């Protein structure tokens, strides 16, 4: 080192020095539009609408049924895979089940699972503030899809470094998906679902491609409803002081993910709902099946007495189905 010189120390930023974000919070901001996303989302939705038109008019029943099966598999790849297994570590899965869930998650294509987990862990840590990637305080459209059409808020960028992702980066299954994202996602989500109907039952390219996009866009909106509707409209039996709500309609179409007030109070519960609410919670039934054959294990739940005590202390006076307890 030259004489009389000093070496500057690299000081790691600390979250303790930052302003505490208390939900609901949304400071004034400038929206920087991502035009590439506007174009791709615009095309995807127009193509999906045409796919719906073809489904109604062309009576392509084999292709409709095929895409419905893919729709269910993709949804569970998000709910039981990216969400309950990898984000919240609500249960553990042996390698075969992890591979199955990774392929199913790839079929949904909501970025790679690594990206999905990072965003969702931020959503829980900073829920309904500017460090929440899809801050519901900004309204339905922003939390539903608008957040994907603009640049990330600066708070998301600054505080993302405080999210522990070491377990995710250590997972070889998720590293594989990330490393080969472009060819793997392109093949699993788009190419194969288009080619299979054409090869096996002579579907036209026009119908196969547009039905594929209809299925894909529907999967997106189901997940988006958990970010938007399940933070805006519903009841709060477990904690009336937070924005997430119980929304039965979302639970029905999102395979059990709409019991959101419970989930934000107890994010580590593999059921994401009291007692599983299995009438609407297909993802819980999926995990339960693999637990029976030994591929899923260490399923985390919350004791009923703890649930009842929390509901009594901070809930809005409704039961898990939204009925007034005093009725």
Automatic annotation (TrEMBL):
The alphabetical list of record keywords is: Fatty acid biosynthesis, Fatty acid metabolism, Iron, Lipid biosynthesis, Lipid metabolism, Membrane, Oxidoreductase, Transmembrane, Transmembrane helix
Query: Where this protein primarily resides, as one coarse class?
Result: membrane
State the InterPro entries in the record: Acyl-CoA_DS, FA_desaturase_dom
- What is a GO molecular function of this protein? stearoyl-CoA 9-desaturase activity
Transmembrane intervals: 38-59, 65-86, 180-201, 207-226
**Cofactor(s), by name:** Fe(2+)
In Swiss-Prot or TrEMBL terms, this protein is called Fatty acid desaturase domain-containing protein
Species lineage, top-down?
Eukaryota, Metazoa, Ecdysozoa, Arthropoda, Hexapoda
């Amino acid at each position: 080192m030259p004489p009389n010189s000093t070496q500057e120390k690299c000081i790691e930023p600390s979250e303790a020095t930052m302003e505490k974000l208390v939900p609901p919070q949304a400071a004034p901001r400038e929206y920087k539009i991502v035009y590439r996303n506007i174009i791709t989302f615009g095309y995807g939705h127009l193509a999906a609408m045409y796919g719906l038109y073809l489904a109604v008019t062309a009576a392509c029943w084999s292709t409709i049924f095929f895409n419905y099966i893919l729709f269910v598999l993709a949804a569970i790849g998000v709910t039981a895979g990216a969400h309950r297994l990898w984000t919240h570590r609500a249960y553990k899965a042996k390698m075969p089940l992890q591979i199955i869930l990774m392929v199913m998650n790839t079929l949904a294509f909501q970025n790679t699972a690594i990206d999905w987990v990072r965003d969702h862990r931020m959503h829980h840590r900073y829920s309904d503030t500017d460090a929440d990637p899809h801050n519901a305080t900004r309204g339905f459209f922003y939390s539903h899809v608008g957040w994907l059409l603009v640049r990330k808020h600066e708070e998301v960028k600054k505080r993302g470094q405080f999210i522990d992702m070491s377990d995710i980066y250590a997972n070889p299954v998720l590293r594989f998906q990330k490393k080969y994202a472009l060819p793997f996602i392109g093949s699993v989500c788009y190419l194969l679902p288009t080619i299979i109907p054409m090869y096996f039952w002579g579907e036209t390219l026009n119908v196969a491609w547009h039905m594929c996009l209809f299925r894909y866009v529907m999967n997106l909106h189901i997940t988006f409803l958990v970010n938007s509707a399940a933070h805006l409209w519903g009841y709060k039996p477990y904690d009336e002081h937070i924005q997430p709500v119980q929304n039965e309609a979302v639970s029905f179409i999102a395979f059990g993910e709409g019991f959101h007030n419970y989930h934000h109070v107890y994010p580590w519960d593999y059921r994401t709902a009291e007692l599983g609410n299995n009438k609407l919670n297909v993802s819980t039934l999926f995990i339960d099946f693999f637990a029976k054959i030994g591929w899923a294990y260490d399923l985390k739940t919350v004791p009923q007495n703890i649930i009842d005590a929390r509901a009594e202390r901070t809930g809005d006076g409704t039961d898990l189905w939204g009925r007034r307890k005093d009725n």
